[in-house]
Amino acid sequence: MPDRQLMARAALDGHERTIGTVAVAEVTDLALVSAAVPRGSDEAFAAALARGFGAARPATGDSTVGDRCAARVLGMQPDQVFILFVPPDPDRPAETVSATLESAAYVTDQSDSWAMLRMTGAGVRTALERICPLDLDDRVFPQDRVARTAMEHLSVIVLRDGADSFLLMSPRSSARSFRHAVELSVEHVSE
Amino acid sequence: MIIDHPLLGPRDAAEFVYLGDACLIDRPDPGDENAARLFHDYLHIRDNPAGEHRELWFHEHGDRSWLVVTRNTLTHEIVRVELARDVALARGRDR
Amino acid sequence: MSGAFRLDGGAIERDRTLAFRFDGQRLTGHPGDTLASALLANGVRLVARSFKYHRPRGVFSAGSEEPNALVELRSGANREPNTRATVAELFDGLEATSQNYLGSLRHDLLAVNDLLAPFLSAGFYYKTFMWPRSFWERVYEPAIRASAGLGRLSGEADPDSYDKGFLHCDLLIVGAGPAGLAAALEAGRSGARIILADEDFLMGGRLNAESHEVSGRPGAAWAADAVRELASMDKVRLMPRTTVIGAYDHGVYGALERRTDHLAAARGKPRQILWRLYTKRAILCAGATERPIAFGGNDRPGIMLAGAVRTYANRFAVGTGRRIGVFTNNDDGWRTAGDLSAKGVPIAAVIDVRDVDPATAVADARIRMNSRVAGTWGRHGLRGITLATGERIELDCLAVAGGWNPNVHLTCHHGGKPVWRDAIASFVPGDRLPGGMSVAGAAAGGFTTAGALADGHRAAVAALGELGLAVATGEPPVASDEATEAAPFWHVRESRGRAWLDLQNDVTVKDVEQAHREGFRSVELLKRYTTLGMATDQGRTANVLALAIMAGLTGRTIQETGTTAFRAPYTPVPIAAFAGRSRGKDFRPTRLTPSHDWAEGRGAVFVDAGMWLRAQWFPQTGETHWRQSVDREVTGTRGSVGICDVTTLGKIDIQGRDAAEFLNRIYANGFAKLAVGKVRYGLMLREDGIAYDDGTTARLGEHHFVMTTTTANAVLVFRNMEFARQCLWPGLDVHLISVTEQWAQYAVAGPNSRRLLAKVVDPEHDISNEAFPFMACAEVSVCGGTPARLFRISFSGELAYEIAVAARYGEALMEALMAAGEEFDAVAYGTEALGVMRIEKGHAAGNELNGQTTARMLGLQRMVSKRKDCIGNVLSERPEMNRDDGMELVGFKPLSSGDELTAGAHLLALNAPADTASDEGWISSVAYSPTLETSIGLGFVRQGHTRIGETLRAWDALQRSDVRVEIVSPHFHDPDGKLLRA
Question: Which residues pair with B20 in a beta bridge?
Fold first, then answer.
């Protein structure tokens, strides 16, 4: 018999830091599951999404908010969404999504694939100007927009979930480099 | 360089990876009696146009779509951007 | 108040004094000064020595075009050579040093070069340093290197930090002079998102330098108000101290912003930022640069551009001399006489080459129309001039007005050529502009303030229309027009002494004439032969003059003669700014596996594998050589059990109704019939039949597979599979997503691996040999419920497994495995032991799948299915790739057991010469096998399988090795695979 249970360790150990007006904090309580839409099943998928999470299917580049599991659905690819939610069982989020969507999609757990940093506060966009090639202007990238791009050679998913709040997701293995890139940007623009 | 993605709008070319001529979509029928020659041409024979060129770009740091970009090789002007999957389907590729 | 040459007025803060040093001398200036204006205010005229002849030189201009006044700024590691004093903003404590002399600035021993000038003319290097050949490295190169360059690098690491960034706008306006401000005001009031960039720290351009009025007020005051209004607008970003350096495709511009150069200390903030500007439209309002006239001795300190003399008087409140003369070919030169005279500076003379009436009356000045300056005198500074008529005039500053060149540079960055306009005797932008760009004001050849204001406004209205924005005010600011008549006049033929064109590179009219005589008549050749325009100022004050002279010599028009290519950057950019923050460990990101900290705690030695850091081996106390560690890890694994972090392998989740069919086409071997709960080794070919990646793929469900790729090809394989999915077979129902980062994965290998795993895998999962045989896979749980995936696969040749958990549990699983393995003396092993064991087992890896090898060469030809369509199978049938005498993968052992094999050695018959014709193959991978206690290798040799037992030479010129080897089976260890299935 195994004599001990495995302890989970977050990509950045739950790191939090405030620099000037910008707070940078690792998000560790959300699960992320990809859901790919079977060819020819777009309608069934949209219906399952509405039934299961109470969310509309977003277009690629947009996100929608559901009324169950605090879920947010991110339109990542023409035939793929990511579902960001508070998981009832953090060890089995893909099973939760599969059951909730009544197997209407091919699901894959991505929770450990991405380290999540939330940047909040006035000055977030000024800091992001140093590493993010996307136009984050209110008219171009309003709240709920989502995009995948590259910052400092790293893939990053950018979700705007507030006027001055961005959720950034970057591959877990390079999370420390990513955190450094983000915080250096904030340091460079803070007074 | 900017590629105006049909779903996402203008994005920096740094997000993309270039492959080559869009004729790579037209993979020959391996059952053709001339398959060896057809595959040879498919892999190695390219036009080198001074003017509009249809080429494949992958939105690696983006939505992972393959795109067919029509670019003028003389001016670098990009005149059309399409989802490669739509192009492939329109050209009769399926299963 | 500082400086004997200060005048009234100007845009300096007189009530604050800044102390600075030049060549150790303590001086003072004011906020608002440049280093150049502060030096001139203190009467410092000699500031530099020229590049080649070490001629005394002074400040020539008042802007970024400065060829002469280059200094070293700051000290120690912060020292920056070749800084233009004319754009260096004065700050308290600034330290500047003159450069390019031996001895002192005033008594430069290298000024002897000036006496040798007759021998140092154009093409001197090409003609002189030819012979004898043996002198090249020993004599010429050290001598040339010692005298080359201007300022000195500190030789230390740059202590400053730099950054990059991305900005977006509807409209970029380059230059904040009258045209730029008028454009920005209209566009800003109309609600456009604007970036207004100017290289100066004070926006306003020539409005700050002239005495013109705009809308009934002094131009400088109008400009300040305009900047204030723009600063109050949300969507306007003002970027002073920012040079737009290049125009790139699709509205992208590069800009260098100097953030802390004007401060005594950067206080940890980036010194400069290299911006990438994404624009929908751009208006170039970059103004114009004045050019001189070539005449004898026109390089002495005190001879300056006439517009710069006005700038120093009007903006910086500095008189550039006690008695000033003006030499002009146009009306604009007369403004210098008028403005300086109005400021109370005596004007000694105005010499105009034109036979016209004087433009204005100038008190007490000698007015000489249809006249020319032919010579000058004064050793360290101008003391007087001689006219072509022989008349001598004593003065200490000569303002030279040769006309204005529109700053067309950015208009040419997409291959456009400027066109000559006779009316203003200048090049103006051609019609092939970068997309989205328009040009306004002096940059477009409109040299009046009124014209610039109206033109900037017009360009903004046009751009707003294209952007679909309504125009707010519709009226441009007004100013009175000034006279701008000019005559093309380049060179005084009656010159006494050398007439200089390129002051920084010491190119004279005579050099151009010589280039012409020797046949270097194309401007591009003229440039390279004489070095005209090749200095840090890129000949901004010199080029047009030189090519006008070349046009005269060849009898062609200036348009026919043309310009050299304009390339980015517009002004010099430090390499450090291009590097940005990508220095040291920030050069690129580092990827770490979930148990990295654990490995580090164990003292692992890491190796770079792409961006990954992988544990290479784990030294233990007493081990002094890496081989001791690796041998122990191999022996421990083969003897009992070892654990290796294999997280870095690429992992791709593949799902869909057609997932099996898709894999069947991606892999050379069949996957359609792989049973659920089984793993299969797969080989991928390129479409040309060459092997490119391999790995294992497990079938977790009817429509669900998980693939592993090599660490190196993870990204490429994914990309290629997306291509196949979207472009080749868009009708298949198959979906891909990377799970490389999701799973922490560990190989557990060795005869005790099952016993170890039984302690970790929860008991409800039967992992006995019967229930979970070789090549089985299952979703299990470990340590009391944590989900895991278990694969019975082996890279080492032992009974072995790979076990994966979500990355968050990776470190804990590694610890649990090691704890469970204690009773078996389990070892952690790194990539080196992994490599030794795979060579012992005869598995191909990156060295064998090197882009030159086929399935047949790898001994895997039976895997390539001929009955199905898959990538690469048609062209792998090519006859050349199926020759009977083709290369085949085999193993090698040295005949003499003490010998070491080397990877890269060529294989030769024993008596064959070491040449290409005798080459029979190569050794691709080698290792010391602690199992066999000898060096072993894998490699390729012609018809290898038929030659087992044969002896060859392994010859390696690079590593100076030549040993006899025996061809053996590549499967050194357990060739029958009994251990795997135990």
Answer: B56
